[in-house]
Structure formats: structure tokens, C-alpha cells
Automatic annotation (TrEMBL):
Cofactor notes: Binds 1 divalent metal cation per subunit.
GO CC field: mitochondrion
UniProt cross-references to CDD domains, sorted A to Z: ASKHA_NBD_OSGEPL1_QRI7_euk
Biological process, per Gene Ontology: tRNA threonylcarbamoyladenosine modification
Assembly description: Homodimer.
Key words of the record: Acyltransferase, Metal-binding, Mitochondrion, Transferase, tRNA processing
Official protein name in the record: N(6)-L-threonylcarbamoyladenine synthase
EC number: 2.3.1.234
Annotated spans, Disordered: 33-68
Main subcellular location of this protein, as a coarse class: mitochondrion
Pfam families: TsaD (PF00814)
Family in the record: Belongs to the KAE1 / TsaD family.
Amino acid sequence: MSPLKMTISLFICTTCARWSTRPHPSFTVHSFSPATHSLPSARRQSSTSLPSAINGTPLSKKEAGREKRKKFIGMAKAVDRGQYTHTYNPLKEGGLFVAKSGVPRQIEEGKLFTVLGIESSCDDTGAAILRSDGTILGESLASQHSIHQPWGGVVPSLAKSAHEDNIDNVIQTALSNANMKIEEVDAIGVTVGPGLEICLRVGCERAKDLALRYNKPFVGIHHLEAHILMARISPEKYNNTSIPSDKSMSRAMEFPFLALLVSGGHCQIMKAHGIGQYSIIGGTLDDSLGEAFDKTARLLGLPVGGGGGPAIEKLARTGDPTSIALPIPLQKRKDCDFSYAGLKTAVRLASEKLCIERDVESAEQLSENDKANIAASFQHTAFRHLEIRLNRAMVIVSKEDERISTLAVVGGVAANNELRSRLEKLCLDRNDPWKLCVPPPRLCTDQGAMSAWAAVERLLVGSSDSAEGQEVFARYPFVDMDSST
């Protein structure tokens, strides 16, 4: 590896999937009250301050931060316990949704409307025009696979530059594919977090500029909620550009439901009560499932420009999932949290043992059959861990709320066909079978339609943001309803 390549590799992101208050003068500010209790404000000062000293000994800022983090060892990541300055909650004090930049007039008239959605949270630049019944009218996606392939992961600075080069063309292509002009779009939604901050900013600034210039309602989208809400689009709406026969805006499922989010940066189980209203049941203690796929793919020398998940899935099809014994994580821990760091280490150790037996120096030099067996064994064990935790969550939820019998599986890893098949069986093989809702594989990964649809959902409950002064957030956890009541 050259010195330059070694330096840049230090900045590779391993958590990507491969995540003014003045209203516009032409719109009315609305307040809507959902049939739920109120939640705390989404933006607040951290309630967990840094310790200043231990046993009278002053701490540096770095030491104080380390001591603070010790409080959360053994707890699921990306869950707010008072340590985050910014959390996501579109409900304001009193449990009201507020349309800071208004809503499309078509909502009050009972008519369909259109939204331009923009996504730039990681390494793909996406835009889509989506009608409020879920129909995708036009979309465009600029992939960065070839840019990041040589580095074995996403390089944030390169991703940012590619977003800047592609953003205008991607938006224009989506509009052209929908046979529309920007003036004809009724609202604009853009991902504002979580994700790579310098990448998020590219899409957000462009969306803000368009919303202010053309006087459009603006919605700052939570990337993970956008993944979750994609499962609510009725399947018949995918790529259906015909004129709708009705304006019922039917959904594939209604709230409440159980959601499993599996991506490169996140792994969570949560109850979805409504827009912006989630209860966290389980999360990863260390690595996400997608991250474990990526690192296993790199261990085997597989191409990861398009994400380690697809590479492992393809290779695993020809392997024996029982050929290598790997430990299922957290067998003694009877909760719904995940851990993939230990499994990742077990795969590495098993690979090293196989290398000694085959007299080769690295896993990359193993035969295709050996690699396929490693990939299949890893994937089987990773999914078995997920099945055990998810089954436990389904049992808990069924006892707590008999209304919940639907599972939404979302995020980039949800595109894996083996996982989809196994979770479908998990839902059907119950005394009272559950309904499984999973978006098509191409809509599980990051793209503009998810931002557009999340904006539709927010606007329909009367929630929008002010484009002026909108920020982006690298870390942006949900407010946990169970811990906030």
C-alpha cells in the first residue's frame, strides 16, 4: 500500500450502508395533534454532562469524555439516554405537529400532491419525484461504487466531492423522468441525519436553496425513519405511473407495528407507534449487521464498492452454511440487543485456521470453495442471531400490545434474499402468523424515493420544517417513547 493510500484509508467510514422559524408567505402554519401523549422537544442540551473530576483529580476533556462513555458500556448504541444534544422528534411540546413551512394546499383540498426527495447521507446521490399515493413518478441515482472500491470502504471526502459533482444532474434527471419542472413540485424533502455530515450538507443545502427560491414546503428527513416508512407504501404503487383511480392513499400496513432496521450503520428493533414516535426494544452493542458483512467481505478479499452485503450473499449461495462452526452471539443474554463484534472475530480466527491448513498466507488466497463456506457459515450464524433476538421481541410485543402483528424489515441488509426468506418463515410459523412487509430490494438501499415518501408522511400529519437555518446531524437518535414518558 502506498503512503497516500494508507493515509486516506484512515478516513474510511465503516458505518455506511454499504445513514429560521418563519413560514413561507404563501402557506399557512398549521398545528395537528396526534392521538398520543406528548414527547419532549427534539433539540435540547445534553442531560448527561461531562464529569469534571474523579476523587478530586481534575480531568481533561478527553478523559472526561472517556469516563462519560463508560456509563453506556454494555448498552445498545444509537439510543438516547440523555447523552445527545440533538434527537429526532417532530412533535413539539404538547404533542402537536407543526407545519413551520406550511403544507401543500392539495392536502386541504383532498387531492394528491408531489414531493421531490433528495438523499446524500453516505455514498449515493439520489433524487425522486413521488406522488402522495406512493407512486414513484421519476427517479435518479448516481452511484459511487467505482470511486470507493479501491479503498475498501467509503472515503468521506471523496463521497462529498462526488455528491457536489452529481447533485444538480441527479435532481434534473429525476424531474425529467417525471416529465415535470421544479416549479410543479409541491414540496421538498431531504435527508438531514444521521449520516456523514459533510455528505448530508450537500443535499441539504441544495434542497434548502430550492425550497426557498420556489417557495415550497420543506421537510428535513430522518434517514432511519425514511427506511421504516418505505415499508408502508402499497406494493402496487412501485413504478406505477398510471393515473390513479382513487385518492385513498392506502398503506401496506398501519400503525402500530414492529420494525427491524438492519443496515450498514444501524441494527435496531423498535415499535412504531406513529410518525416520529418509536419505542426502542433492542439495538446493537457494537457492530451493526451491515458492518459485519462489510468487514467479512474485506477479510475474504471480495469487492466491496457496492457493499459487502451483496458480495457475501452472492458467494454464500455456493457454500455450506454448516461447514464452519461459529458461535451465536449473546446466547446467555435474554434481551433483544445484538452484538456482531465477537462473530466477526470468530470468522477471522476460523479463516486463519483454514489458512494454516491450506498453507496460504491470507484468506484472500483461499480457494473459492473455502471462501464460499466461510461466507455461508458467517451469514447463517449472523441471521440465526438476528432470528433469536427478533423472535424474543415479537413474543414481548404480542403480550404488550395485541394490535401488533405486522413486522416491517427495512434498511440495506433487508435486500438480502436469504434474510427475507428466513424472516418470512419466522412470521408464518407462529401460532398466530404475522404479516411481513419488506420493500423491494432496490428500495431497501439508499435512494431519493425514501426521502420523498417520508416527507409525504410528515406532510399528511401536518409536519414540516423551516428551510432557513436547517442543520444536519451525523448522530440523530430517535426519542425513545418508553424512556420519555
